[in-house]
Amino acid sequence: MIVNRLLTLGSSRLRYALLPPTPPDLDPLPAPRSVTLLSDQTLGHGIGGREALLRLKQIPGKEFKLKKGDAVARGQLLELFDKGHAVISPISGTVTNMTPYVGDYGRVYMTLTIEAGETDAPPQTESFQRSDMFRAAPALPGKPDLPKTPPLRVIINGLGSDVLATNNQYVLKTRQKDLEAGLEWIRSTWPSASAHLMVVEGQQQEWNRLKGCRVHGVAPVYPAASPRLLHRTVTGEEAPSEASLIEAGTLVLQAEALAAMGSLYATGIPPMQKLVQVMGKDGIGHLISVCIGTPVSKVLEHLGLKAEYGDRLILGGPMTGYAVYTDDFPVCPDTDTLLVQAAEKGVPSQTPSCINCGACNRICPARVPVNLLLRVLEAGHYGEAAESFDLMSCIDCGLCSFVCPGRIPIFQYIQLAKYEHRRQVAEEAQNQEVAE
Amino acid sequence: MMSSATRFTVGHAPFMHCGQSISIRHLIIMAAALPAIVPTVLRFGMPALAVLLLAVGSAMIWEVLFQGISRKPSSARDGGAALTGLLIAMLMPMAMPWWAVVCATGLAVALGREIYGGTGTYPFNPAALVTALLLISWPHLYDLDRTFLNYTLDFPAIWPLVEVKAMGAEAAFRFNMGDLFMGREIAYIGTGCAAGLLIGGIFLMLTGISRWEICLSFLAGILLAATAFHLMNPALYAGPLFHLLTGSTLLVAFFLMPEDAGSPVLPLPMMLFGLGGGILVIIIRNLGVYGDGAVFAVLLMNLLTPILDRMRPKALGRSSWEK
Ligand code: SF4
Ligand code: SF4
């Protein structure tokens, strides 16, 4: 994404990993004996992680719709509250543990551990209704985030979510039936929405067989497959940065998510196998199919990969993912990549003053004046950052940190600022309400 | 859940880096200066080398000293002072007395760099700042004609810019453009060899370390303004090519103007910054009292950077800059 450099000598262009023309055979991991599911209990923007955690802790177990010792069936939708975030049990068994878990930036989850076993839970007989799709979607592989209002267009991301992920490309190559069923669901649910498939540039011809879908080529240069940039490729316009993409009428789905929806729609059974690109310390990539909820340690064990004290376990890609502290952490619906990074390969952050080299500005795909933004962020002026320095235009690609010669954790500053800014705005809105 | 014995290191995304670092950048810039320095050192020998080494060495010692006083971590020593020292020396005649060199680097490190907080924080290019200070305080030290009294040379031992200032544009014909290009002229240590500066400059532009928008628009500014003056009064003002090859034009274009801290980083501001700098250089040379006032032009443009920085494109999905 580097622009206006005289030549690209020594440039830091990042490209998406591409799948070889003949996709590899997958060897699926056997279903684990025990799975851990993360049920998202994050409250709105105005309410921090602390409050969400307190809420979880203060409700005694009996008030949840689910409790320890409950028997669950394979494919059953599990919810803690009515209208809460649902997870789907990939195995039949018993809930053996429920513990809150705190993620980054105010995200709070309830972890549900399910041990496989003979249970008397009734097998899931009634098939899924169309409206069930909305409840089940966030628990499906690829984590489709379906809006309540009909979108104008659905954009299907056939590239990766991060530089290493090849799951979407694999799905495009191998699961045409599911994709068609998914498109069918979209067409019947939102008849007025147009569908757009985004594939690697030069491969458009191959996909014309997918009915009712306009195919667009995208140069596989990171972060061209980022939702807002896909929106721009399709519509030729930029969605307002103050509002979500949905408000601009665009729903972006990973190809894997569409295939999962299609499979659920066609068979009534929610698919629970997630495609994960795994890379160990040797730098060799493996694409495998894993049951959602499988602990990371099991995945590594299966592939014979080692991860030791001090290494990093990175879920969700090297540019935008997150590092977890334990290998008990489960594979989630959106875990496209699993990376083991040797301790010495990490990028230690430093905090020298910005030398104003402009590398961040030049690489920023959102034209954010990152060098100026950084100065207000260091001072903690988040409101000013959003108003005058385009904080909210950032599309979270992480390239600014990637190129900064000072190794300043710019991306972290930006994420923190966004979180704090949203919180401030929501709090002000609440105060306003109380005052009125 | 989440209770296994092995603990992993956490951190924030991204987990990759392109490998560039501040000290590598400084080293690359210093390496890019070598093609311009080596011919001079070969031609004039020890005096030139002595000034260069003294400047770089003393700048580094000053840096240790001042950073020690302000209790900075050793990671703050990133080669920035050495680079400043090198650039200062490149802007000095080789007859510079040792005490003036040490004073200059001390001023540059203290007043130019550390007082603002070190690398990246200073509003003015420290090398330009100190050269300007010395030019004002001790103008006789920068008198090039004096420097070369002891040499017998096979090219005119006259300082081109001053000669033209005193004798009018005709004097320019006494200098062969080829000589000027290859560094066969009287000049400061690092400004003589236009060919070497060009090699280093092109290298810096290709690696993206010197932003080409600034370098090229600066040269464009020089050419435009010099042509305009020349057309107005060909007898008084020398032509554009002469200005391009003499004095510190190329050194300023590739090493001082695009220096990170004091220059804007967005395309339009960079162009204006360079263009303005180039025009100012010619104005100062033709109308001012100094033969070569390029460093003053740099300082003036540094002053404008915060204003220029405000001219920026709308960010992704912004309907207005400020709501
Ligand atoms: S993370 Fe945001 S600010 Fe940084 S380069 Fe990407 S879009 Fe720009
Ligand atoms: S890349 Fe880093 S050092 Fe360069 S301008 Fe951006 S924040 Fe400053």
From TrEMBL, chain A:
GO terms for molecular function: 4 iron, 4 sulfur cluster binding; electron transfer activity; metal ion binding. Residues 346-375, 385-413 form the 4Fe-4S ferredoxin-type domain. The keyword Iron-sulfur applies. GO terms for cellular component: membrane. It comes from the Bacteria. Keywords: Iron, Iron-sulfur, Metal-binding. It holds the Pfam family Fer4_7. PANTHER family: ION-TRANSLOCATING OXIDOREDUCTASE COMPLEX SUBUNIT C. This is Electron transport complex protein RnfC. InterPro entries: 4Fe4S_Fe-S-bd, 4Fe4S_Fe_S_CS, Ion_transpt_RnfC/RsxC, Nuo51_FMN-bd_sf.
From TrEMBL, chain B:
The keyword NAD does not apply. InterPro entries: NqrB/RnfD. The keyword Repressor does not apply. Keywords: Flavoprotein, FMN, Membrane, Phosphoprotein, Translocase, Transmembrane, Transmembrane helix, Transport. This is Electron transport complex protein RnfD. One of its GO terms (cellular component) is plasma membrane. GO terms for biological process: transmembrane transport. The chain crosses the membrane at residues 24-42, 49-69, 81-110, 186-207, 214-231, 237-257, 264-284, 290-308.
